[in-house]
Amino acid sequence: MNGAEYIAREIERRGVTHVFELVGGMITFMIDALHERTAVKVVSMHHEQGAGFAAEGFGRMTGIPGVAMATSGPGATNLLTAIGSCFFDSTPAVFITGQVNRAEMKGSRAIRQLGFQETDIVSMAKPVTKMAELVLDPAHLPSAVDRAFTVAMRGRPGPVLLDVPMDVQRATVLDGSAPGARPHRTDVAVDDFWARFQQALARSRRPLILAGGGMRSGLAVHPFRRLVSRLGVPVVHSLMGVDVLAADDPMRVGLIGSYGNRWANVAISESDLLLVLGSRLDVRQTGSDTNEFKGSRAIFHVDCEAGEMNNRVTGCTALTSELLTFLERVLDMPTDVARCDEWVRHLAALKSQWPDTHELRDLEGINPNDLMHRLSSVAVDAAAFVADVGQHQQWAAQSLRLGAHQRFLTSGGMGAMGFALPAAIGAALASDRQVVVIAGDGGFQLNMQELQTIVRLGLPIKMVVIDNACHGMVRQFQQSYFKGRYHSTMWGYSAPDFERIARAYGIAAGTVGEPGGIDEALATCFRDPRAPSLLVAKIDPLANAYPKLAFGRPISQMEPQVRSIEMEGT
User: What is the pTM of this model?
Assistant: First the structure.
């Protein structure tokens, strides 16, 4: 077989059912091979960034690498934001770019370019990939493909990139395929770590577990839920860990961090023992005062990357281990139940004292936190909620009530606006179920062209655009630090009529601007569970995402009750 046929066959053999791309001359051989030689569905997007985010959504939902392809030059560079998003959020993905024929590559010549669209994408992608490789020898293609899928899944998952010249795609290659199974997880000795934690737990009266995004990327959610049920220790979660426990789980406390639920941040500040699983304790989780975050409490930290531990927050008892390995080992060991009934009751009282819907109680018009509660109640059959980046992302993380089967996908480390719509396409194809998009008017415009992909494929994606007629999160920053000079967020910014745009694509759409119309508008949007639809929810442009950590203060002190004492840098 030739190189393109080999790549196509290996993609299918690894369990990948959909490949996302925007066609270009240098990937036509691979696209044709996928169509002719496999049952893999080739999904044509309308921008390479959209293809990359769709592959990310697919990888997040399935746990196997999402695959995106692009031609050389602008096609390859347009993938870079999605590649970086996969890298920072530990999503397994294989990105394959076509390159010019080897004879058309500039090599060591002192020129910028020889072949048309020739671009050194490997050098550009190396900082945000686990592996980036230009395949110059057809004999090396089988081993390169095998390494790509293996490296994407091994240890902390992430993206890899293969750049394959056109003549390598056409060249004959020998069948050097490998079994293609998920790499075996090497067991690690956790006995001493767990014994020390159990000793600390026996002394603790206010223990907490902090669950991060590593729980999902490490495929460890189900054993984690078993451990929580056995231990009886309350759980707070990061933005990337929103879906680790169902909303009705009695041990679920809430979101912590810069825009965390107020009661959850207070819980962190009052805890006397913290077990951190799959979270890197970045500044948006801890605030800038890491000494206050650490306090006098004991912190036990498990992560698959040693460099993430005792990095910002020091003095932790650390264990380097993949979470699945750790949890499976711990579940085989005797485990004492925490003695914290009074603590659990106290946390429930805190939640009653600071309900999320009361943070904006004086806001005129639609309360976004209340909207998220109502959205949750009509989307109980959705496989996933996919949030874009901005204030709506934080309102969704604060207030969505997810079922045990539901996922929450968002761009965390990269924080890429335009993520939600294409990522929802990948999630919908991976699950073959309804998916809900939550986006702001600013972010929705970045990849709005993918509405055509949704229509063409007939995907049951329900889109809720929170339209505040501005770039709200940055506007809120300008309100705090620039005396309300709203340049480029309100001044010099505009958005179209999204309802009319959706209808132009053939998508049912509506608009709601008053609280009394929310239930009817949502019912209309979700009336046909198998068809796409869009709802525009108009909210006050000056609505702020509260509570918000007052930068420079302890994690329990949040705006608007107190103000920042430092200029936030994130």
Answer: 0.95
